[in-house]
Recover the amino acids of this structure.
């Protein structure tokens, strides 16, 4: 018993101050929101398009990056002869709509969150059922991290619950293989309305690295209406938390303070 | 025993000409595989490749842990039934089911012939379990083993589970609280990776390797890169090999510490559960300090690594590692001194060494049965040729042993990383390899945190992958979990499951 108390003393209090204080420090090599410097981009060149594993970049007059497909792998950065594509430390990536994820002129319209009745219902208490459907377990692991003492998701009234019957919405990860389609649908059907769906990670948004495989449905939107998109492969826990808090109207703007 | 006339012998990450793999007659091939397994060899991989339009070629890759040598042979026959070896060599049971599923051919005499991943056959032929219309039932529908009796009941769990974990289906035959039998039916995570690796390398190839089991990114990408480097005769610079080793051990640390915390959580011991959940993040953040990604994405590439560890970074990782080490020790050691924890860990989910050997288990699950099996020791390549990691074993085969082996390995991994950080070789970290040569075969083994990762790369006449076979350690070990549950209480399932902590995505591919 004394050892347990000593360990408790040693481990201390570890819950982060964020969002009341600054967000946890990200590593210097972290790859957040990309940007394409138009002045540097030679429009004839398609090196980035050819290098990208997921066809996330399209050039049609100007280059666009689809954050819903992007793996943040920087294969494009290395391929670009002009150094036009860079990845910043900006971890804020969540959007309300699929189209908002297509980055053009480096403008990203972050999630505006729930409004009206939905906000009144879920704003202070959101119960989510997680469904893992055909990813790599990376997103699941970084969703789980939010439940550790450092992040303590519960302090925002957000809880991952064991049954869809107890849930207000689904948090879906994975490319949604045909082998998971029915299970996902049944889980969704088991929620009581009004219900929401959150797609976390490149797989859930676009199929990710498995996009266009005949075995998968290229993400959740093929089967269910999606209310919040959190891109990344996998998204950093801070990106996920930022998305959830924006969704609930807990943070706005630069997101560093509540 | 290995008859040298029947096998080509080579080493880990050592190329052989595809033509040098002896082709045996089907019955001779079967006898040779069974004899080798009887003589103590393990089946690292056993798989088929298409042979023209209507044939199949089976390859057997056998591993000799004692000598560190690898033995390969093949046989070819027209698509159709072939004799099953499972009754004489249980290690191939799941491999044969996989072959049956991919090619639509029946291993005759297989005692447990069911789908593995529930996908249509690659050849368009009906699978052995297809209905009269030639179509196979959808995922999760199969002839589950059933125990009948007035007081026997069945419990079905999944694919969607209560926690934030991957999908799979578990079916228990119970008598009261006691489990007679557990059957595990997977395939829900199947996204067609292995098929898509054929014809590579392409721009998605390395990303498939990174995401076939996202908790083992460094393990699988390292195995892939060893295979490419072996085929092309390139060497990753020594500094890159050391950085790969550091990343591999950080991956082991994060997962082992996370598992120890989750095991504590499963027996309701919250101090260790809360601390380890957080400390796991410290190790992931060290990986992120190296490459920006907590899971080691974009770090390991053919020819080396994309990120260097310079002196200031090495110092800061060393300092953070020392903190994490102290925190880990204070959290984990509580487990062994707490009788309520030990009461649940000890004697639960016991596997004997004999069963573990017969099934060909790998990784901590095997070492917890007293089997000193570790690729880093038995088939060392890369940095492990120069820096040795002692093999950690325990003999009781229960949940406690699987937990305790993890703790021993945590300590070894920390020691290894500290050693590497102190003496990083000078020089570059990347030397990109040329194009792949035609008609080569390489077997690449890496000790991932779950155990032996086995990749078999084969190039065709065009220098593209004619086959790229991935065997995640989970492929060997899922059946071990099923056997460990026999005679246990069903309420101990989460604990037993976590003590193996196997990959669904790595199994389903
Ligand atoms: S970072 Fe994104 S856009 Fe660039 S190559 Fe990778 S997936 Fe494509």
């Amino acid at each position: 018993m004394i050892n347990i108390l000593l360990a408790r003393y040693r481990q201390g209090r570890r819950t982060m101050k964020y969002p009341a204080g600054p967000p946890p420090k990200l590593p210097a090599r972290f790859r957040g929101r990309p940007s394409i410097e138009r002045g540097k981009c030679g429009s004839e060149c398609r090196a980035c398009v050819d290098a990208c594993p997921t066809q996330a970049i399209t050039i049609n007059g100007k280059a666009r990056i689809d954050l819903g497909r992007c793996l943040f792998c920087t294969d494009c950065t290395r391929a670009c002869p002009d150094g036009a594509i860079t990845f910043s430390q900006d971890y804020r990536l969540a959007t309300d709509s699929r189209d908002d994820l297509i980055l053009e002129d480096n403008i990203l319209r972050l999630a505006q969150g729930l409004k009206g009745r939905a906000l009144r219902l879920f704003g202070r208490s959101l119960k989510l059922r997680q469904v893992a459907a055909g990813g790599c377990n990376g997103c699941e692991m970084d969703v789980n991290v939010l439940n550790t003492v450092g992040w303590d998701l519960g302090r925002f009234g957000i809880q991952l619950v064991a049954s869809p019957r107890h849930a207000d919405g689904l948090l879906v990860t994975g490319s949604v293989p045909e082998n998971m389609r029915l299970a996902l649908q049944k889980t969704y059907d088991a929620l009581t309305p009004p219900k929401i769906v959150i797609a976390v990670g490149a797989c859930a948004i676009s199929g990710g690295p498995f996009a266009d495989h005949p075995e998968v449905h290229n993400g959740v939107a093929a089967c269910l209406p999606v209310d919040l998109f959190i891109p990344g492969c996998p998204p950093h826990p801070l990106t996920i938390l930022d998305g959830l808090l924006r969704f609930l109207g807990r943070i706005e703007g630069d997101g560093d303070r509540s | 025993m290995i008859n040298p006339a029947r096998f080509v012998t080579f080493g880990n990450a050592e190329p052989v000409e595809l033509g040098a793999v002896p082709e045996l007659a089907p019955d001779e091939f079967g006898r040779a595989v069974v004899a080798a397994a009887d003589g103590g060899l393990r089946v690292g991989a056993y798989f088929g490749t298409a042979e023209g339009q209507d044939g199949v070629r089976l390859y057997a890759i056998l591993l000799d842990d004692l000598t560190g040598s690898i033995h390969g042979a093949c046989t070819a026959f027209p698509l159709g039934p072939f004799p099953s070896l499972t009754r004489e060599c249980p290690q191939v049971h799941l491999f044969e089911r996989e072959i049956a599923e991919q090619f639509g051919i029946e291993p005759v005499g297989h005692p447990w012939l069911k789908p593995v991943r529930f996908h249509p056959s690659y050849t368009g032929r009906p699978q052995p379990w297809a209905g009269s219309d030639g179509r196979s039932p959808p995922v999760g529908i199969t002839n589950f083993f059933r125990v009948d009796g007035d007081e026997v009941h069945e419990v079905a769990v999944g694919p969607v589970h209560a926690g934030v974990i991957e999908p799979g289906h578990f079916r228990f035959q119970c008598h009261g609280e006691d489990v007679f039998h557990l059957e595990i039916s997977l395939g829900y995570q199947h996204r067609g990776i292995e098929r898509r690796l054929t014809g590579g390398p392409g721009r998605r190839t390395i990303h498939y390797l990174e995401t076939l089991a996202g908790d083992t990114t460094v393990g699988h990408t390292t195995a892939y890169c060893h295979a490419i480097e072996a085929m092309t005769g390139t060497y990753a610079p020594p500094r890159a090999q050391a950085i790969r080793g550091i990343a591999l051990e950080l991956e082991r640390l994060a997962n082992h510490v996370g598992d120890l915390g989750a095991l504590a959580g499963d027996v309701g011991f919250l101090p260790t559960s809360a601390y380890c959940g957080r400390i796991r993040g410290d190790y992931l953040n060290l990986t992120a300090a190296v490459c920006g990604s907590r899971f080691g994405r974009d770090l390991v590439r053919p020819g080396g690594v994309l990120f260097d560890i310079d002196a200031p970074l090495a110092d800061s990782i060393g300092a953070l590692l020392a903190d994490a080490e102290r925190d880990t020790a204070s959290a984990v050691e509580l487990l062994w001194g707490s009788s309520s924890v030990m009461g649940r860990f000890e004697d639960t989910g016991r596997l004997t060494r004999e069963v573990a050997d017969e099934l060909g288990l790998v990784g901590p699950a095997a070492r917890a049965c007293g089997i000193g099996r570790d690729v880093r020791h038995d088939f060392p390549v890369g940095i492990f040729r120069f820096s040795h990691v002692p093999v950690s074993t325990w003999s009781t085969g229960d949940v406690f042993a699987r937990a305790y082996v993890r703790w021993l390995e945590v300590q070894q991994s920390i020691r290894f990383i500290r050693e590497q950080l102190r003496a990083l070789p000078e020089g570059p970290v990347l030397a990109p390899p040329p194009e792949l040569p035609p008609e080569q075969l390489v077997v690449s083994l890496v000790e991932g945190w779950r155990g032996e990762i086995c990749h078999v790369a084969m190039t065709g006449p065009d220098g593209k992958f004619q086959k790229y076979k991935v065997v995640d350690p989970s492929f060997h070990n899922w059946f071990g979990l099923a056997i460990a549950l026999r005679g246990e209480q069903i309420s101990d399932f989460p604990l037993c499951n976590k003590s193996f902590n196997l990959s669904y995505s790595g199994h389903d591919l």
